[in-house]
């Protein structure tokens, strides 16, 4: 008789235990008193411009390369219309920050309509909305200019507006107009501008800082794209960590994210080549992040640069002093009243009141990129300077490692992980016995692959359930784990650098994907108690994991079934007689993507029998029981 391998024996024992559990069931008794206070800001958002999540993503401006910012001097996204020559001109700067423009040269003898088009970020979403477009023009021209939205392949015109323009070669003039568009069937569309060639023949016109906006989230000028902002807002997060992430750090100190180059008029923002390989316009700048927080009721978690960039050199010692001063200037801009130099500057930009910053992160992932050995010294310098000027602020270290010994009192520790499914589940109890004197911020986490190492481009139920197991462990310890955020948040599917992501999108009318992990994050964030309650169980954790909490007269019990067999569970809670059970379930590989949505939450009402709620958790499921 053949001998069974140890792995096969373990597999058979695990399957048998799952079968026994599913038949016998799990019995839970939730205490209605006692427990630990849960963090009121536990679930939130981490954002950096990766995967064209900012420019081309949640920021509303739809045209690519619209100010020729950063080091890229190409004609990306532009195409000539008619007999004209397009080039990037450095002789007619719009401002010191925007030194390049689009030169449209018209040969002698040309007539008719000529101009140029812009294809946006792999197309332009064209909906039945009122669009606003603007541009700067320089050159002698008096006559009509027409702007259009049209199908790139079909040529079908969805919107057009003709305006009379008076322009001179002496200086730039800004032109702005609005127009109503019809609905396009897909995102393969262009924006086009044409003018009368006969009025320019033998000469040229220069165009710069060209913009196209749909209606924005909450109607903000230079605001967010509603198609994405509404989906992000529906997560009901409590905080927003920004501006990164690696995109804060830059490849070198010179290419780091510079706060002072992201404020004020858009034409004074030079942009930069972001860490993820494409130009950032910084139209989504420091104040726009704060407006995002205000409009979604999010606590701003501001992260500042601390000497570490991805390709170095690392700035340390006394060489850090100018950068520490820069951070203090940034904080004065954010927190100072109008009598301070930088508070007055903020007020001049239209924001007289200080922004409500209470938490500041020093750096990002300083245990990586060779930053560990110098972090204790760099962290201490920034920490001490910030606390001296703003003692009310909570300082967050970018790693639990490489910190000064002893650690400064009151600091929080940022910790990140990207795991396989079993690795993520294995972290369920990692916060059970940590030092409660130093709270944690799980600033980035996601399950990115199966146990066999196969990477998942979109979250699947198995990875999302693994994340839920980890989150249950986080919530059970939310007296010490103060915040947690899935990352990355957004992904333009035609221009990504990292997968999986919480919300992939493209430019089609139905082009925003709520992934299985999105629904897990939403279920956990929307259903939150104030106190984590003790739970008595007649069996151990696994394959079912749970956590219970209470807010006033509402009880919340969250479950994850990390297994391929359904599980029966009875829940005893004194008092409530009715409950609503919301369940997300599917096969281990079930996913939501651009071609299909396989998994969405389903809700049902349950009545208690003798104070007991009887439920069945499907295989590979996440569920929330709300009893009242």
Total strand segments: 33
Task: Give me the CATH fold name of the largest domain.
Answer: TIM Barrel
Number of domains: 3
Separate helix tally: 11
Spatial separation of the terminal alpha carbons: 57 Å
CATH architecture of the largest domain: Alpha-Beta Barrel
Mass-distribution shape: globular
- Please state the average pLDDT score: 95
Radius of gyration: 27 Å
Query: Quick one: CATH superfamily of the largest domain?
Result: Glycosidases
Please write the CATH class name of the largest domain.
Alpha Beta
Q: Sketch the major β-sheet.
A: 8 strands, parallel
The residue fraction in helices comes out at 10-25%
Backbone structural class: alpha/beta
- β-strand percent reads 25-35%
Oligomer: single chain
Question: Can you put this structure into words, describing what you see?
Answer:
The chain is α/β, with parallel strands linked by helices. The protein folds into 3 domains: 18-38 and 530-627, Golgi alpha-mannosidase II (Immunoglobulin-like, Sandwich); 39-60 and 220-410, TIM Barrel; 78-213, Galactose-binding domain-like (Jelly Rolls, Sandwich), CATH 2.60.120. Helices cover 19% and strands 31% of the residues. It is built from 11 helices and 33 strands. The chain has an 8-stranded parallel sheet with strand order 3-14-17-18-19-20-21-22. It has a 7-stranded antiparallel sheet with strand order 2-25-27-28-33-30-31, with helices on one face. β18, α8 (372-389) and β19 form a beta-alpha-beta unit. α6 (321-335) packs across α7 (341-348) and α10 packs parallel to α11. The chain is globular. Mean pLDDT is 95; it is low at 1-20.
């Amino acid at each position: 008789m053949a001998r069974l391998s140890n792995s096969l024996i373990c597999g058979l024992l695990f399957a048998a235990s799952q079968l026994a559990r599913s038949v016998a069931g799990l019995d839970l008794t939730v205490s209605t008193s006692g427990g630990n206070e849960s963090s009121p800001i536990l679930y939130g958002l981490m954002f950096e411009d990766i995967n064209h999540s900012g420019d081309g993503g949640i920021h509303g401006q739809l045209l690519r390369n619209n100010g020729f910012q950063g080091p890229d001097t190409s004609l990306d996204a532009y195409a000539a219309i008619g007999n004209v020559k397009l080039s990037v001109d450095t002789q007619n700067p719009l401002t010191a920050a925007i030194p390049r423009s689009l030169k449209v040269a018209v040969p002698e003898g040309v007539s008719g309509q000529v101009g140029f088009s812009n294809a946006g970020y792999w197309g332009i979403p064209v909906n039945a909305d009122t669009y606003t477009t603007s541009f700067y023009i320089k050159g002698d021209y008096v006559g009509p200019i027409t702007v259009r939205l049209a199908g790139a392949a079909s040529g079908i015109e969805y919107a057009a507006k003709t305006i009379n323009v008076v322009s001179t070669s002496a200086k730039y003039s800004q032109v702005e107009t609005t127009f109503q568009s019809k609905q396009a069937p897909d995102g393969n569309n262009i924006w086009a501008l044409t003018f009368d060639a006969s009025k320019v023949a033998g000469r040229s016109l220069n165009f710069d800082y060209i913009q196209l906006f749909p209606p924005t989230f909450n109607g903000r000028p230079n605001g967010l794209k509603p198609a994405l902002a509404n989906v992000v807002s529906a997560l009901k997060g409590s905080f927003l960590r920004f501006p990164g992430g690696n995109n804060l750090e830059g490849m070198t100190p010179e290419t780091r994210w510079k706060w002072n180059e992201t404020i004020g008029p858009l034409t004074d923002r030079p942009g930069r080549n972001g860490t993820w390989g494409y130009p950032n316009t910084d139209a989504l700048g420091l104040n726009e992040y704060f407006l995002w927080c205000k409009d979604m009721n999010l606590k701003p978690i501001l992260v500042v640069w601390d000497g570490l960039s991805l390709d170095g050199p690392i700035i340390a010692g006394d060489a850090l002093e100018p950068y520490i001063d820069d951070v203090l200037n940034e904080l004065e801009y954010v927190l100072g009243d109008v009598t301070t130099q930088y508070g007055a500057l903020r007020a001049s930009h239209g924001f007289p009141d200080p922004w409500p910053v209470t938490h500041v992160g020093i750096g990002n992932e300083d245990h990586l990129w060779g930053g560990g050995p110098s972090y204790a010294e760099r962290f201490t310098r920034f920490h001490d300077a910030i606390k001296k000027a703003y003692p009310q602020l909570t300082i967050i270290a970018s790693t639990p490692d490489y910190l000064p010994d002893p650690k400064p009192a009151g600091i929080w520790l940022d910790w990140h992980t990207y795991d396989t499914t079993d690795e993520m589940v294995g972290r369920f109890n990692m916060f059970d016995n940590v030092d409660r004197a130093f709270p944690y911020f799980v600033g980035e986490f996601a399950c990115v692959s199966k146990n066999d190492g196969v990477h998942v481009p979109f979250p699947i139920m198995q990875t999302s359930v693994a994340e839920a197991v980890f989150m249950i462990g986080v919530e059970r310890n939310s007296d010490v784990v103060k915040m947690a955020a899935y990352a990355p948040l957004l992904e333009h599917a035609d221009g990504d650098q990292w997968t999986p992501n919480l919300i992939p999108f493209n430019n089609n009318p139905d082009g925003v994907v709520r992934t299985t992990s999105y629904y897990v994050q939403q279920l956990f964030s929307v259903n939150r108690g104030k106190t984590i309650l003790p739970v008595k169980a007649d069996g151990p954790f696994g394959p079912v994991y749970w956590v219970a909490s209470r807010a006033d007269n509402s009880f919340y019990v969250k479950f994850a079934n990390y297994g391929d067999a359904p599980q029966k569970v009875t829940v005893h809670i004194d008092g409530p007689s009715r409950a609503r059970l919301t369940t997300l379930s599917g096969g281990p590989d079930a996913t939501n993507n651009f071609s299909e949505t396989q998994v969405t939450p389903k809700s049902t009402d349950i009545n208690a029998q003798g104070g007991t709620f009887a439920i069945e958790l499907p295989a590979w499921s996440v569920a929330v029981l709300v009893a009242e």
